[in-house]
Amino acid sequence: MTAGTSALLADGDMVTVRRLRAEDFDAVLNLHQRLDEHDRYLRFFTAHPGRLDLLSRLAIEGPGIGAFRGEDLIGIAHYRPASADDADDAAEVALVVDREVQAHGVGTLLLEHLVSLALAQGIHRFVALVLAENTRMIKVFADLGLPYVIGRGGPELDVEIELGEPDRYLERVEERERLADVASLRTVLAPASVAVVGAGRRDDSVGRAILRNLLDAGYTGDVYAVNPNTKEILGVPCAPSVSSLDATVELAVICVPAESVPDVVEDSGRAGVRSIVLVTAGLTGTPLEHRVRELVARYGIRLVGPNCFGVVNSAPATRLDTTFARRAARAGRIGVVTQSGGFGIALMDALAGLGLGLSTLVSAGDKYDVSGNDLLRWWRGDGETDIAVLYLESFGNPRKFSRLARALAREKPVVAIRGASAPAAQRAAAAHTAARAVPAATKLALFGQAGVLVVDTVTEVLGLLAALSWQPLPSGPRVVVVSNAGGAAVLGAEACVRNGLVLPELSRKTHDTLRRLLPEHASVGNPLDTSAAVTADIFASCVTEVLADEGVDAVIAAGVPTGVGDPLAGLVARPESKTVLAVRLGQLESVAAHSGIPCYADVEESAAVMAKLSERTRWLEAGRGGLPRLTGIDLATATRLVGEYLSAHPNGGWLSRKDGEDLLGCFGVRVTLRRFGDRELLVRGQSDDVFGPVVVLGLGGIDGALLDDRSTGLGPLGTNDAEALIDSLRASKALFGENSALDRSALAELLLRTDRIMELVPQVVDVDLDPVFVSAEGATAGAVRVLVRPRPWADHHLRRL
């Protein structure tokens, strides 16, 4: 925290939070002197009021932090050990906030950062004295979300706060961050005024295209252009700089040469610009990058980009389009955040062709600031967005992404493009947006646990978006294929099985009704071959009858136009109906609209889409299962064991066999010799610097060497996450099917305990249980290797940009 962290206040204003230094002493005293005596006594809570010199020294010499708006110190917080011998894990805490910014969330933000700092230093309780009349400060404690106790002692109240990361506290932190983030994004996505800096006179200039789209979209705010070489562009008067404009601008869209960007950013900051969309590329990895980052932090500016395509918000009250696409975006209900401008352009055009459109689009580019996490928060409260689409090549805070994506996916479908998986693709992504390579299995685990639906191509995402937009989710995986062509029926059935769907038998009632509707030579079953001679009305009646079957969740209706007519012509979407996807073999478009039903060109694509819809249903029904309370954990002994090893080996290393087994024993994991009849698996936990604990389950022994069957999960694992790890093995049904004698629940618990080792003792970076023996009696490790390294405390939930 020494260098400072940018964070947002409740109203969206940006501040820098950092450790106080000796040179801040005068600023600390000045802050106190700006308060009157009554306000000092109310705002400063410690053992006794009025000790400004002592408290100022403590704030600087001890663990003190300050909140700075620009160069101005607007709040400080610090703590000191509560006992003289420093043996207690409690600390006395103090806080003061400039009265001009009180009620903006400065105090709460400082306390959150102070909690994180204290936990890193082994402090687990805060204590304080607060005046009984200081109701505002008591409310800060109550709203913080941590357990607290207030005791009376005359005019002063004793306050004791238990630190840690209980779910309630994290929920409060996340909600405060969401509200602050959304408030700050207003000037990005719904600004009252926009200036295009670098609007060009040539028809082929990026700045001119942006200005044209802004005007064509019907933007409801004030539009300005900045170009020192002309008086007017597209009817918009030009000024030589942002600071020379007659009005204060909320959003500046910058598309000037890279070497000019820092000067334009500084000019914009001085002129009061709140947000910037930086289209210009070529900054990342150069000295220009550091300068731009420093400037936006100094002036409290939200930044999209650089190296980006622009932003869109089609809400009727805004109608903003700052992209340089061929034409302004079509309005719709789909939100998009992408690190690839090309993907954004392709998706915009493809959606428009289907009659769908965008609610919002943010091209994040190199992601200096605004990222996918910001948009996940925006979309949760955005009534204009029904579906979210993500194309992300890197993750700044995967743990926060997981919680945000999971929360949004509970309310709205979230779709992601898998992105770079192969080494060559990852190198290309790194060159494109400076993205850190993310292992494919890790990315899939991140998406899967958060309920994000993953696809690989623009064609696939388009097909899935059509289904999500026009059809209800199926209640389950039971699908019937109905076709007027025998070959299409067979291919459709095969595609369903290949995609993990279930082909149920039709009920006797449905079978008899279909037999009366269809010619004698028709094949009544699943798949249902109606024969080529049926009319569109008969075909539609067959689909209706199948949907009425209680054992059926959805229908794929595949038709081949014949001389008799188009069998799909009678299909019409009905709001009360089950899920219906259509296939018209020979169709040129990969997906098209057909009377409210998505119509695909291939049965394989329709089955893949149906499988994604079923996956979402399953995820919504399963929930996370919560973080289980695991008994038999001796954290004190485990921490002492690792600490003693690191004291003797400062650079870390592999624990001895005995110490490794003792560490596992502290978490209730047994290490035994193999018994005859046990199934051999492997479990490995590795702590990634960015993603945190990653748990891998796989086949062991010869099976593992031959089949390479593994699944990956990200910590902290919930009960259902552990179950999903087991289900994701290709051999899962063979190992743990209905007739299996293996103890599946014991294996799930072993996975959870492996995850908890790394969660609770972060110095443990590798836990290798190979082999793991699973039998009817339980799951035990046959051998263990544990790698430990010194690691600083990392708070993945701290509010920061």
Task: Provide a descriptive summary of the structure in words.
Helix 11 packs parallel to helix 12. An 8-stranded mixed sheet has the order 1-2-3-4-5-6-8-7, with helices on both faces. Strands 11-12-10-9-13-14-15 form a 7-stranded mixed sheet, with helices on both faces. The protein is 37% helix and 23% strand. It is built from 25 helices and 35 strands. About 2% of the residues have low confidence. By secondary structure, it is α/β, with parallel strands linked by helices. The two termini are 13 Å apart.
Through-space gap between termini: 13 Å
Please tell me what the overall shape is.
globular
- The DSSP helix count reads 25
The major β-sheet equals: 8 strands, mixed
The amount of helix comes to: 25-40%
Give the C-alpha Rg: 30 Å
User: Strand order across the biggest sheet?
Assistant: 1-2-3-4-5-6-8-7
Strand residue percentage:
15-25%
Structural class: alpha/beta
Poorly predicted sequence stretches spanning 5 or more consecutive residues: 40-55
Described by its quaternary structure, the protein is: single chain
Total beta strand runs: 35
Averaged pLDDT: 89
SSE blueprint:
Elements: E1 5-8, E2 14-19, H1 25-33, H2 37-43, H3 52-61, E3 64-69, E4 72-81, E5 90-97, H4 106-120, E6 125-131, H5 135-144, E7 148-153, E8 156-162, H6 167-189, E9 193-197, H7 206-216, E10 222-226, E11 232-233, E12 236-239, E13 251-254, H8 261-270, E14 275-278, H9 287-299, E15 302-304, E16 311-313, E17 320-321, E18 331-338, H10 341-354, E19 358-363, H11 372-380, E20 387-391, H12 398-409, E21 414-417, H13 423-433, H14 440-449, E22 453-455, H15 458-470, E23 479-483, H16 486-498, H17 508-517, E24 528-529, H18 536-547, E25 554-559, E26 579-584, E27 591-594, E28 597-600, H19 603-622, H20 635-648, E29 653-654, H21 657-666, E30 679-688, E31 692-699, H22 701-707, E32 710-714, H23 719-727, H24 732-736, H25 744-760, E33 764-775, E34 778-781, E35 784-788
Parallel strand pairs: 5-6, 9-10, 9-13, 10-12, 13-14, 14-15, 18-19, 18-20, 20-21, 21-22, 23-24, 23-25, 25-26, 26-28
Antiparallel strand pairs: 1-2, 2-3, 3-4, 4-5, 6-8, 7-8, 11-12, 16-17, 16-19, 27-28, 29-35, 30-31, 30-33, 31-32, 33-34, 33-35
Helix pairs in contact: 1-3, 4-5, 8-9, 11-12, 15-19, 16-19, 17-18, 20-21, 23-25
